Amino acid sequence: MSRRFRSVLALLALVVTSTYALDAQVTSDRLLRAASEPQNWLNYGGTYTSQRYSTLDQITPANVTRLESKWVVQNQVFGAWQSNPIVVDGVMYITQRPNDVMAVDAVTGSMYWLYRHTPSADAKVCCGANNRGVAILGDTVYMGTLDARLIAIDAVTGKARWNIAVGDVKAGYSITMAPLIVKDKVMVGVGGGEYGIRGYVAAYDAKTGKEAWKFYTIPGPGEPGNNTWEGDDWKTGGAPAWVTGSYDPALNLVYWGIGNPGPDWNPKQRPGDNLYADCAIALDADTGTLKWHFQFTPNDAYDYDAVQVPVLVDREWKGTQRKLMLWANRNGYFYVLDRVTGEFLAGTPFVKVNWSSGLDAKGRPIQTPQPQGQPTYPGNQGGTNWYLPGYSPRTGLFYFSAWENYGTIYKPEESDYKPGQLFMGGTFSVVTPAPGAATVGIGRRGPINTWTDEVGNGAVVAMDPETGKPKWKLRQHDVSDAGMLTTATDLLFTGGREGHFMAIDAKNGALLWKASLGGQIVMGPVTFMVEGKQYVSVIAGSTLVTFGLRD
Amino acid sequence: MRSMRTNSLMAVLAVLWVATVASAQDHTYSSADIATGVRIYGAQCQLCHGSNGDTVAGVNLRLGRFRRAVTDDDLAQVIAKGVAPAMPSFAFSPAEVNGLVAFIRAGFDPGGTAVKVGNIDRGKQVFATKGACASCHRVGREGPKSAPDLSDIGALRTPAALQRAMLEPNVAMPPINRPMTIQTTAGRTVKGRRLNEDTFSVQLVDDTGKLVTVEKKNIKSVEAGKTSPMPSVASKLSPDEVADLVAYLLTLRGAQ
Question: Tens digit of pLDDT for each residue in B166-197?
Fold first, then answer.
């Protein structure tokens, strides 16, 4: 490198640093152009496309083995740490259970402030006191809470600006997702699909917390789609929204994945297709009006939430440039949709599927319920779930965590709805090769893995959207809830329940580097840059570790 | 404290055993017994115990967690005498009691298998003597280490799983316990039982009782035996003795 070039670089770095140092405000325009400031990780999914792809290129396949731990933050709260950090101009904002927000120096790990919200004792969540992160706009960070509140927190002082109720905590409403910010609005959806809620996505004025719009994910009487429910079933039909959506500014549409109908496992108790449970929905970002929907699993009997982050991709499809949405669904199928219209373009199973014999021309599954006592594949946690997928425009591949060869036997029963009580519609058991043999399920219970591949295994899948077939797979012994991160140097960072943080060649699946962190990785890694140095952060067990290259 | 309580419970049960006529001629209850139990349970028990058997504090009938009972006879006694003041006594016919016990032992599964649970003291004796279980299995501070340690097996397994493990060890063996033979690329052979496994390595206790880690990238071949090192007790022990062993194993619930 010539001396002159070096000094130009230094000058550039100075300009870049000072530009962002001056611009302390994260304007909605910056969120829109998040891809142009890869030193930051501004949205839950990186950019509004939720591709989790970074153009940072300092860490490469050639030097990735020189990664070392730079700092660690220890979680003081026990339990799965599913949170995804955002990083803004050298400050990381990260949540920990149940509803703490921490502002951390992204270079040293030192903490600026910790904001603590103690959720109401009435808060109920089926599957853990999880929170998956915050969003930022202006100088305010936003967090949804387990007791279904939305809190605006000053990004500098760590003090609350406003704190509003989004849902009725006593009726089982909760928020576990990171909010989505579009223009001047903060959007969140509610969890509670196991408590007979009536789900919705709602938008609030970022300045005041005043409700701007609310879209019920179950249409009421007189609204289109209400006829996919019988009688009063719509009132307790679930259809929660508990992972963050994506946004297409050109179409001005926000996309959300909607969860299961309730009660979960007894479809006979709620005859009909049960819209918009298990759907991808497209809403007008300004008004919340439904533009289109696509239902993956009508009259779902298996808790196949469509609670996956919609991944928006512009690419060639069968010879034509199109605006696509790529989706590996909990029901075991990988889908390609046109995100302008919601048109179904393709769908192929990526794991063993026996609840359906295939999809028709419109993408509707041909359902083949198994005889009572016989296993259904994929099992109750699905072929995948809410685990953050990723897409690299360089490789053209879609990456996600899959659970393979894992089945469940369902026992549907009539359930009575009682406000705030579980509303499951029966029970299930996991297929095991021998009585009492260990199985897989929600979360990992400890450091010892005594199940074997007979009850299922995990895999990192690199799906070729064009063919619907994996280009490569990296098999994992244990199942994985880990998210994906790819970079412009064709690195794929991910992990799993075993606690191995891995750098994989995104092109061919070769393992290039790993660090054994000794705790389950149940979030998506992020990358960012401060003062010219690229970092990668991951959470394993109760530690948040930030890696950088050895100096 | 727990061990004192267990001891005195066992003493009481031993007395009960003497007074009880051994009637078990089979290892399991029939599906007709279970069907009877389903009917009686729904009509008489469900109101308090709930459809999953878990609505009375400290009791989970479906999972076999009781406050007082261990054996089938205990269950029959509790049903017949009640638990003052919370639970009334029930005057069921022997067939109805039998059915309820069967339904509980089948884990509330109308299509399941219900297993007889016999006498704890006799089971402990069979474990140490005629069954020769203690020659391979460790309980507490006694016994060898290469076979699975049974110190907490009662907390981990259902009665049906315990019985099956004894009668059909090859079928019942959890896959993690399969005898492994691993050849490494360096020409080493490791024989043993897996304790833990992940994508990159496997942890074993080998045949000599040593803890060994093998990196998967160094494995040339691996064989997981389908035959359990444990022989079936079917030809060696009577159905009553098996029921007694089940009763004893159910009392093994970790450090005491």
Answer: 998 998 888 888 999 999 999 999 999 999 99
